[in-house]
Amino acid sequence: MEVITGVWLGVTILAAVVEALAPALVSIWFVPGGLAALICSLAGGPVWLQAALFLALSCLALLFTRPLARRLQKGGPASTNADRVLGRTGVVTQEVDNLLGTGRVAVMGNSWAARSVALEGRIAENTRVRIERIEGVKLIVSPESAGKEGKEQA
């Protein structure tokens, strides 16, 4: 085996291994170029043709796969379904006291740690509350005003 054939084989294998280990597409486009150059080398083609094939096919692979890769790799907020409790009504099962950092609310059959919207807020046990937002693993709640109908899911 000629040295240049070993080089193309090494480039192809290295690009494939790096791609397998990387969490993003970083070297996949060099694999078809390396394979074309390897085949050309095995067929006895001149080194300039091998290099030209490597560059041309690598660039074509990049040109055709990069837009697809960008679309597939676009990240956005990951939905955890926790947001389904937003706007719902829950019931305080342990007094909410922001100063002590205590409080639990039952909503949709689950118990959540809770804090009041008011900075120094306290909400008594068995009070109906509206889920305003989620911060980390805690619900931020406000007492439901009298006569207001919410979505009961406690």
How would you describe this protein?
It is rod-shaped, with a radius of gyration of 30 Å. By secondary structure, it is of the alpha+beta class. It has three helices and six strands. It folds into two domains: 3-73, no CATH class; 82-143, Nucleic acid-binding proteins (OB fold (Dihydrolipoamide Acetyltransferase, E2P)), CATH 2.40.50.140.
Main pleated-sheet profile:
5 strands, mixed, barrel
Number of helices: 3
Q: Please provide the ordered H/E string of secondary-structure elements.
A: HHHEEEEEE
The tally of structural domains comes to: 2
Please give the number of β-strands.
Answer: 6
Key features?
154 residues, alpha+beta, OB fold (Dihydrolipoamide Acetyltransferase, E2P), five-stranded mixed beta barrel, 6 strands, 38% helix, 25% strand, disordered C terminus
